[in-house]
Amino acid sequence: MSIDVNNESGIEVDERAILDIARYALARMRIHPLSELSVIVVDAEAMEQLHIQWMDLPGPTDVMSFPMDELRPPVKDDEEPPQGLLGDIVLCPEVAKKQGEEAPTRHSMDEELRLLTVHGVLHLLGYDHEEADERAEMFGLQAAIVDGWRAEKGLTGPSPAPTVS
Prior knowledge:
This protein is an alpha/beta fold. 45% of the residues lie in helices and 15% in strands. It has helices at residues 15-28, 44-55, 93-102, 109-124, 132-153; strands at residues 2-7, 36-41, 63-67, 85-91. The protein has a 4-stranded mixed sheet, sandwiched between helices.
């Protein structure tokens, strides 16, 4: 799996953990091991510009996903996953920090960025949360991936609750 993490935010973030949880999420979703993903960490100003340009919404947001080849997880166990470019995930640590502090399970900016990375991966794979059933599926899968990664790393304590809107 080729995953690039590029921090342009000027804020120190745990890039290794972002890379690791992205790799874990893609493996769990059975995405071809030669597929490519880019994760870009930007400041609030850059995120706000993207949010206005692509969503026509004011203010910075936490995560945005820009799919390329519209790869999807294989449906059947014996199905060969396609290889390709997943696309870009853009994260904003300033928004992540605020969300982590305001979450019911209060957690760090880095924990929130890991959660947002998984959220972004799922969006790249075609998952959405506009409808209640889609939301339940996506957030359930997101929690399972984050919990699985945390267990694999031996992390204890409550997992961060979804704060993504």
